[in-house]
């Protein structure tokens, strides 16, 4: 019997579990390793921050998905990977061998540039830790006067969280003057999106009283400082900056890209170790035809399931994952509105939020039965 290890319970692996529940690969021991009983759906977290959802509505219980697929769940995290020996060491000290592995562990937030910041610092990843700490910090923010909140990161996560906070906390902080800043980094606001969407997002941010600063920021002598040297007052910093790989990946012998992400082919198979697959934020495509997006991770799931089943059966991967030339992006923009894009098209309004809400709820509900 072969052992398939799914490392991480990301969106793609949830789709794999759903597929294997319907058609389990024969003579295979399935093991999924993740540190949490829950997988949080990132698309709904801004809505939770704003108060539209409970936290239970934004997460999926992992154990029922694993059980339905006939697998075994290990609540742990990876510490070291030795792909030459096909051996995985876990934080608990347990060592696990595998015949085939797939990695879907996401990424972490780069925080080294904030190492000496002596205020309150909250990273958006992992989402479980963010949700627990934000629930506490939100009460502190609303009970204290003249709080200065700074969000670092001009990508989709940073913009959505900033607008959610502006919407949910704006009435509390309105009397204190400018209280919420979004520091986008050198690439500016939403650099991966089209010009019209960026314009609409900027307009919404400014209408909601957010100060947008299109610079980078670091900490110096315990305080936040902009790239030009100007100090920036911050009682709470929320880091939604660019993704960086999880430590153990960089320390493995897998072939990585220049940023340290696992380099894979069009089947999402490691270029150096064919018994390892990787999907989602933890990998980069050698052909460059994929950006890091939950949209792609969900669509890659069924393709990954077919390829894992093929390799377990002694065959080569059968299906390449070809991202669509255009993807639908829907960004929550506060006040039950959203901004969307599909290729060159851009649209916004309450109807876009209701559309997004329906898609998000339907995705999570698909794992509840």
Helix content: 25-40%
Strand content: 25-35%
Low-confidence stretches: none
Structural class comes to: alpha/beta
Cα(first) to Cα(last) distance is 29 Å
Number of helix segments?
9
Give a count of the beta strands, DSSP E runs of length 2 or more.
25
Q: What's the overall average pLDDT, rounded?
A: 90
Q: Main β-sheet: number of strands, strand sense, barrel status? A: 5 strands, parallel
Radius of gyration: 21 Å
Q: Give the CA-based shape.
A: globular
Arrangement of strands in the largest sheet: 5-2-1-9-21
Overview of this protein structure:
- With 369 residues, the chain is an alpha/beta fold.
- Helix content is 30%, strand content 26%.
- The chain contains 9 helices and 25 strands.
- A 5-stranded parallel β-sheet has the order 5-2-1-9-21, covered by helices on one side. Strands 11-18-12-13-14 form a 5-stranded parallel β-sheet, with helices on one face.
- Strand 15 (217-220) and strand 16 form a beta hairpin.
- Helix 1 (11-22) packs parallel to helix 3 (62-68) and helix 1 (11-22) crosses helix 8.
- The longest helix has 19 residues, at 294-312.
- The radius of gyration is 21 Å and the shape is globular.
- The two termini are 29 Å apart.
- 42% of the residues are buried.
- The mean pLDDT is 90.
